[in-house]
Amino acid sequence: MDIQELDIALKKARKGDRDGLAILYEHFYPKILKYLHYRVGAHVAEDLTADVFLRMLNAINSQKGSFTAWLYTIARNVATDHFRSAKTRRETRLNDDTASNLAAEEEPTDLDDAHHDIEMAIGKLTDDQRELITLKFIQGLSNAEIGEIMDRKQEAVRGLQFRALSALRSNLMETAEV
Amino acid sequence: MTELENILDECVEEMRAGQNIEDVLEKHTQFAEELRPLLAIASRLESLPAPSPSMAGMTRSMTRFSSDAVARSRRKHRGWPALLYQPALARAAAILVVAAALLWGTTTVSAGALPGDLLYPIKLATERAKFYLTINPEEKAELRIVFSEERLKEVVKAYNRGDGVKEELLETMLEEARKAVEIGAGLTGESGDLLVVRAANLSDYQREVLKRLGDNAPPPDREVFTSWMDMCGQRGGWMRGWVDDAQDAPRDETPTERRNRRMMRCPM
Predict the structure, then answer these.
(1) Nearest Cα residue in chain B from A165
(2) Higher model confidence: residue B228 or residue B64?
(3) CB–CB of B7/B37 below 8 Å?
(4) How far is B100 from chain A (nearest CA, A)?
(5) Which residues of chain A have pLDDT under 50?
(6) In angstroms, what CA-CA distances link B193 with A141, B81, B199, B201, B243?
(7) Domain extent at residue A55
(8) Are residues B143 and B206 in the same domain?
(9) Average pLDDT over residues B111-116
């Protein structure tokens, strides 16, 4: 689906058009699910993805600017709310638990060892680093879009990118040593 | 440090444009040793797979999104036919369900699943997805008939496997056929009547299969089969009478009134 088609769907969706909403849902559902999978873990990604689309529905009339960045900002807020919950605070303090949740799959056969290692390593990053890694390398967004979503200047995004990749390298080396 | 951060970003962008790690590092040989492992990780990250959504999760999401869209339309547009929202959204979710099922290769595997089997919920979810993806009413009715046939096959297989008489399947079998007739009632012209005749023929066939099963079953099971067999007979009779009842209809009867009158006569 090209940008023009999405733009048309967005205009329709803002007016409450059912087909427009359906196209946006269909196009962005896998992307948001993937973002939340790597951001908060497989165990809650699906439920949080549903929350994102409900929030989208309630606010789409007032949406302005880049829709993609806006939707990811909603997803980011949903993830933040999730992390703020008492239960999740406990989980995030236990980094190993977070990493395991990130790597958790209902179908273990889908994971090969290499993917499992890197998912574990992502789970051990700080929240900001994990966010950057997810948006930049897993979602393929530009620095400008990431800056808008994370409310940072592009040079700050570049700095965070360097630190995140370096931390990920250290985590992977730790895993290899174990 | 800022220079290194900028160079790393530049290299990442060049790799995104199609260059490999060694090509992008040629311009930055003094930082190559430091950047190479970071770029290798960046490359690995971009190849991470998308998660496979679960049927249960997608169904939950679809239900919540659709119902909220309906509630929203009711609030914002009083008097609108709010349910207009639902089919398109359900179709969107159904496309995702079917895509996921195809991705996992479970659709074919689950086709022979029976109640109690691990894959049976996937089989039902795939059926629902197909139904939501179908827009044409005739095709929807056709699918109902196929589902009814499928439930009968499951009854036979489950019984032969030693699972006993699955009455809940028999109930669904009849309900699917009734829903096919209900859709047929809303169609104009011959196509509606043809659908009802098809459903009547299906009821006769189902009656025959249940009779054969009952004939070879021990007395308690035979009794159960006989009662469902009788119900198939009554339903078949009701459907056939449907086509011939035009002469009994009041002259000023609207299509909706006719459909309601006919559906009310459905044997329970």
Answers:
(1) B38
(2) B228
(3) no
(4) 10
(5) 86, 92-97, 103-111
(6) 55, 29, 10, 12, 6
(7) 3-177
(8) yes
(9) 80
**B10 and B66 assigned to the same domain:** no
What is the per-residue pLDDT across A76-114, written as a single tens digit (0 to 9) for each? 999 988 888 745 555 544 444 455 555 444 444 334 566
- Number of domains, chain A: 1
- Containing structural domain, residue B220: 134-268
Check: CB of residue A135 under 8 Å from CB of residue A35. Answer: yes
Does the distance separating the beta carbons of A161 and B5 come in below 8 Å? yes
Q: Are residues B59 and B38 in the same domain?
A: no
Of B68, B98, B132, which residue sits at a domain end? B132
Q: Is the same domain home to B258 and B173?
A: yes
- Whether residue B179 sits in one domain with residue B86: no
Tell me how far the alpha carbon of residue B42 is from its chain's centroid: 39
How far B51 CA sits from the closest chain A CA (Å)? 6
Q: Given CA atoms B91, B94, B99, B102 in this order, what sign does their dihedral have?
A: negative
Which residues of chain B does A161 touch, with a Cβ-Cβ cutoff of 8 Å?
5, 8-9, 12
For residues B113 and B222, state if they share a domain. no
